[in-house]
Please model this.
Amino acid sequence: MKILLTNDDGYQAKGIRTMAEILKEFGQVTAIAPKMPQSGMSMAVSMGGKPLAYKDLGEKDGVRWAYLDATPASCVKLALNTVFQEEKPDVVVSGINHGTNAASAVCYSGTLGAAAEAALCGIPAIGVSLDTSDPDADFSRVIRYFPGIFGKLMARLPDRYGIYYNINFPKNSCPGIRGIKVATQGMGRWVKEFVRWEGSGHAGPGEELYVITGEFTDDPRNPADADHRLNDNGYITVVPHKIDCTDYDEVRRLRSLNIENIINNQDI
Model:
């Protein structure tokens, strides 16, 4: 099995190094990750005609390593256009992310942005996250349980285009893993996201400095199988996502309003 590995925390992060060790038991691992942390980049690509620094770091402990000074999705694009130009990888894995990507975090996540880029190219993809921001996080739960999840997913991949998976592990402060749940993406948002920065910094004339922070607020409409709620209760969650963002219920509703007939009732 040919595996492309990336992340959004940068190639030196403990999470991606841990995932490399897990995945090399399944096949040939090539890791191409951002040079610097790229959290919150979603599916952004590094455009504007700016040359992007790439460095092949060689092979270490059976894994080929490289970095690109760009977003996670850009790392996947480069990999598919260079290293995997002739033969595409069997799967793209993004992670292990230092921090949760449950609920609406998926909308911002560079981890999931890389997985989405792979899915857009017709390649199975999996994003993996642990609910901790500790750079020296204990990933033993992922080491123990992810191989079984990965093996099960790869053995029975869907035959539909554009599917990718978001796997979240609960924080280590949860007393124990209660199980694995196939979940839905939870709803919620961050409030008080910007606060004025009172510390030192470089501000120009008339400028004020702000730092992004925020408090996550749950949505009471969330079902019991919302991923972040299950994570809080000690479950590992697996949420299937797809590239096609069309709301098909709304398509049917709009058609029922005869919107398509508006132009037919006017002179063209």
About this structure: Residues 2-187+222-265 form a domain with the Stationary-phase Survival Protein Sure Homolog; Chain: A, fold (CATH 3.40.1210.10).
